[in-house]
Amino acid sequence: MANTIEVSGLRKRYGDVHAVDGVTFEVGEGEFFGILGPNGAGKTTTLEIIEGLREADGGEISVLGARPWPRNPRLLPRIGVQLQASSFFERLTAREQLRTFGSLYGVPARRADAMLETVGLDDKADVRVEKLSGGQAQRLSIACALVHDPELVFLDEPTAALDPQARRNLWDLLRGINTGGRTIVLTTHYMDEAEILCDRVAIMDAGRMLRLGPPAVLVRGLDAPARISVPSGVLPAEDARRLPGADTAADDGVSLTISTREPSAVVAAMAAKDALDGVQIHGATLEDVFLHVTGREYRA
């Protein structure tokens, strides 16, 4: 597989702050690639350098076989960019906004109108952009990034302002775009989103890349215990701690949760005690990996 993006030793500094500190990775053609990290990790700066919006202090970058900086006019029609915060032309309707963006790339009006339906805004076509809700404005921003059918799409926290239903609908849209052969690079704070959508993810913190790989591989590499839970009262916590294979057991008054690296042994012992009513078994997730490598302290 050819690489759509190649980044080597990328650096960007603001005074004493190393926003990006020696980041290296590649994104294959047709890959859905995620960049994860806490606030201030360097995700957006990395993305903006690759997009050609910022100049790097050091390192090598190739996007679709070209250098993005200085701004490369031949590269721009081949990429689509949705920023964290988007500004629209004032006093235009959603249809006029999208047609205006499309016209910059020679996109016919009918194709721009079709994109409104694709992102679920066809019923808001004649609504001025300042009257759109936050989620609707976010979808319009994504439509503007996709209207010219780019080969490579950058999405910076695209579902941040969306409700759960809108998020799921957007996931379906992004899957369809990716299945059609487009490369997508995404930043997100939603671990479930990255786990479901991305072929590979990179976890960043303090400007450095800490983990890189397919979500399932990163989760398996964590070697975290499984968590088995039943409603409180199904089994006393003291009895749960004595079950074969149980590491710990705690009851918070709502659920009894057992931590174990031998879930089959624990479940078998619980079955023998007729204590499987309402049982739930949870393995490690990408969120566990994220917290393990970046820590649990609050980030402003």
UniProtKB/TrEMBL annotation:
Protein name in the entry: ABC transporter ATP-binding protein
Main location (coarse class): membrane
Occurrences of domain ABC transporter (ranges): 5-231
SUPFAM superfamilies recorded: P-loop containing nucleoside triphosphate hydrolases
UniProt membrane topology term: Peripheral membrane protein
Pfam families: ABC_tran
Keyword set, alphabetical order: Antibiotic resistance, ATP-binding, Nucleotide-binding, Transport
Gene Ontology molecular functions: ATP binding
Family: Belongs to the ABC transporter superfamily.
InterPro entries the record matches: AAA+_ATPase, ABC_transporter-like_ATP-bd, ABC_transporter-like_CS, ABC_transporter_ATP-binding, P-loop_NTPase
Location in or out of the cell: Cell membrane
Segment forming the signal sequence: none
PANTHER family noted in UniProt: ABC TRANSPORTER ATP-BINDING PROTEIN (PTHR42711), ABC TRANSPORTER ATP-BINDING PROTEIN NATA (PTHR42711:SF5)
